[in-house]
Write a structure and sequence with these properties.
With about 290 residues, the chain is α+β, with helices and mostly antiparallel strands. The chain contains eleven helices and 14 strands. The strands form four sheets. The protein has a five-stranded antiparallel β-sheet with strand order 4-5-10-6-7. Strands 11-12-13-14 form a four-stranded antiparallel β-sheet, with helices on both faces. Strands 1-3-2 form a three-stranded parallel β-sheet, with helices on one face. α5 runs antiparallel to α8, α9 packs antiparallel against α10 and α10 crosses α11. The radius of gyration is 19 Å and the shape is globular.
Amino acid sequence: MRRFDYSAPMSLREAGEILAAAPDSRPLAGGTDLLIQMKERGRRVPRVVALRRIPELRALTANGSLDIGAMVTCGEVAWSKAVHSGWPILTDSADLVGSIQVRNRATIAGNLCNAAPSADVSPSLIALGATAHIVGPFGERSVPLDQFFRGPGQTVLAKGEILARISAARPGAGTGGAYVRHVPRREMDIAVVGVAVQLKLASDGRTVQDARVVLSAVAPTPIRSAVAEKALIGSALGAEALARAGDGAAADARPISDVRSSADYRRELLKVYTRRVAQLAYERARSNAG
């Protein structure tokens, strides 16, 4: 690992000033991505700015709405009964990040900022309509999470900006969501494809009124499938609607072929997993219908 300078500011303002003043400096949360890149891949980071001493970044609130500070770990979210009660789609995905040891270090915000196309947390948060709250030298701004990613390893964060927290409204009665991925191994692997589905049922408790279908590992960023969503809305999730949703997800995807899978195989997986995840989300929504 190359030599680097280290700062541990005690406020967001101080952290932003250090990041803005030091070209190519990087904030450090859990370090499960950044430190590996520095140690094993030769990434040069002249200054690491640790966020661990900033108290407001450790807050996790899951009451009327969900609010996740930048230092909240994937494990804290995955094993929170309050989060599971209101946002089960998020505990689905947070519980899949790395191993137990990794989940105890890796943060939700870090998982987002690493901007890997195969990340597990981002599809679920996008399906929930989450918002990224960013703090920087010029103040604060909020960005819908589906607009946060620019490409592999790239986000909307500008020089000196920090993703301070992520928020999402609590889904109401008659809603349900789920996230499932396909991996060659059960643990310590990344998604070949991932699918998150969040549904809202109409007052009859059977018809899908609204749907969000988000795909990972099949495009440079997580993407929503408008065709799959259209196939689900207005249906009672019969076999025909599920088949159209699966085909729609495959059509909207932009996968590549690599050492882990061919593009065609990823499309076929999407057909299966979209049907499977939509059915699970529908069952959760019906059980939550009141």
